[in-house]
Design brief:
- The chain is α+β, with helices and mostly antiparallel strands.
- The protein has a single domain, classed as predicted glycosyltransferase like domains (Thrombin, subunit H), CATH 2.40.10.
- It has four helices and six strands.
- A hairpin with a 3-residue loop joins strand 2 and strand 3.
- The two termini are 13 Å apart.
Amino acid sequence: MGDTAGRPPSTGSHPAANRRKHLRFQPADLELSITKQASGLSRLFGGGAKENISVGIYDLSEGGMRVSIRERVAPGSTVAVKFKIKKFNDEVAVEATVAWIIPHAVRHEHFIIGLSFNKPSASSQSKLASMRSYFTSPQFRNKSETSKRLKPPPGPPTLEDDLKKLEVSDGQSMD
């Protein structure tokens, strides 16, 4: 079969292909920040720049998220994730491990990564569950569909456009 380390999990139609514990959803109106964690002596002395490397979010769950970033990070690396949820006027801050990374198919200076949350607090888990309930509710979907119909013609490509392109090429080899 080949080595799949550092690659996203399969999203094929076979039931065993998606073994996630948590339902993924697409949130709206989030301010996302992802920063690399300092390591070694830099961490010991509190050094290391805390630059936000996030570009955008594809999906989220209680267990992790898929995001676009502007800098390569190694699978297994730890990052700090913070996002503000405008709808709830609240913030979630968690530490996460990079599960996989692939080059962005369209924006070659960006990468798409899968993050697995590292022991989120009970408060963070509760906030994430509330977000899932809201963003997957019929009320939100109806509101979202209405706003899509009312939007002006599309501009430059968005993360959603890129996601659709990646889904189309999902069955192709990533080598």
